[in-house]
Amino acid sequence: MAVSRVLIVGGGITGSVMALALARRGVAVDLAEISPVWFGVGHGITVQGNALKALRQVGVLDQVLARAVPFDMMRLRNADGSLIAELPTPHTGGEDLPATAGALRSDLQSVLCEAVYAAGVQVKLGLSAHRLDQSPGHVDVVFTDGSTARYDLVVGTDGLHSRVRELIGIDVTPEPVGMSIFRVVGKRPPEMDCAEVYYGGPRYKTGYSPISADQCYAYLLDENLDRALIGPNAPLSLLRERGAGYGGAWGEVIASLPADAVVDYRWIEAVLIDGPWHRGRVMVAGDAAHACPPLIAQGAAMCMEDAVVLAEEIAGDGPLDAALDRFAARRLPRVRTVLRNSMTLAEWEIRPDTPGADPGRIMTETLTFLTDAA
Question: CATH number of 5-67+100-174+270-350: 3.50.50.60, 3.20.80.10, 3.40.50.300, 1.10.3810.10?
């Protein structure tokens, strides 16, 4: 095996799945999470079939599906709620898995946290990596609390604005795409049985997915508003104002939100390290290496695939450099395609009169491409 002890920096979806994937192959794993309380944010997430496949590979699929809503179709609607088309969703994880599942992100993270502890991973909360000193055979890590430890490999899964990426001198920074997103969890109407997207209204688009028996995840894609709004406390009144003009079930969900509904607002950013993701024995993965607009709902899936593919490669025989090169060769073409097509969709949302714009086609083509194994 190329490594025996690994540090993962960042305890979100990527880091958690990676910790499980490595631990299942006999690697001793430490996981450092900067938050003193380990939890996922509360809004919803759409988990495509290839993400479900990764969750099965690390042993938590049943627990996730027990808290999720599976579905195999997406509907496209006009702003007034009238139907444009129904699109069967390709089974990117195989025909024996749902094409898609909607879930509460905090439910998914809770399942992962429980499994990580159960797998014997050593979880370090409230700290991160401060300094990385590399030698030919190891990495000496100084943590933000002053403690130190030695590892065979360090993996930064610390998100879009990765500190590990900075520490190893990868000079790639996220760039705003030109659109933003409001997210909220609301009451699920009884007739909501799959994800639906609304086009043709005053903003770029709106949509929702069922995430439990009585909850749904709703969102609004808009232009970039004041940066001061960014965070989990955007005004509900602003969401309602910006979302005025959309009817159907989306309008019903937004109208029924209580006054204390938690509205998350973010500018959408993208990043891609279009080359090796490692420097010596330190690497980045997940959103730290690639992040795309959420228009194909493949962000989490790409991160989870990174996790299981890395575990496959470094668990084999041979030197670590070769394993990391194989990992990059498997991952780069796949994430590059998803990012390129997601950016195309973003461009079409911003400029809907673009000749040849066909969001349904490019979403279906991308998901069909992803039915091939990672």
Answer: 3.50.50.60
